[in-house]
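For the sake of transparency, this paper describes our internal protein records without simplification. The remainder of this section carries one protein's record, kept here as part of the documentation:
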Amino acid sequence: MGHSQAAKAESRDRVLRITARRIREEGLTRPGVAELMNEAGLTHGGFYKHFSSRDDLMRQAAALALVDGETKMARAARRHREEPRTGLIDSYLSARHRDAPGTGCAVVSLGAAAGRGEAEMKEAYEKQVRSYLELISGTTDDDSDEARADAMLTLSAMVGALLMSRAVADPELSDQLLRTVAARLKGAPVES
């Protein structure tokens, strides 16, 4: 790859990463092309060298955001060798994750958009949901229907709790949502 091709690929990657972060923070409709290109240190005029349209950029950035979350979840599970499911729950339902939507799980931030989106967006979202279910199921040695149902419940509770913890105004309630759901998912007593 020549210098100009490498530089073009690097610029494209930078725009995608910035857009992936921004859509997790603000949704798919908010960030404008000029704003994103400026943040990437590029001119608005250079946009079409990298993407065919704003929709093309949003689709690719959403797919990237979704995949990034899977990597982080797998890392959290691996960090807690004896209890990978516990590590995953603790990492996902943490104040740190709640307070960093730009680098957090896109399944939370893009759920509503995927539900209203085109087939391609729904397919990317579904792919990540299925991947997360496999990851959660894989934290046990059980591959039964019951284990799959438990993985669905776990993922749904984690996504819902994180979403609500970000949406409520009361910081105490926000923390309580994270702590309570994490404790219930781990089968632990709920702290007061």
Notes: The chain has a mean pLDDT of 89. The CA atoms of residues 32 and 54 lie 8 Å apart. The first helix runs from residue 3 to 26.
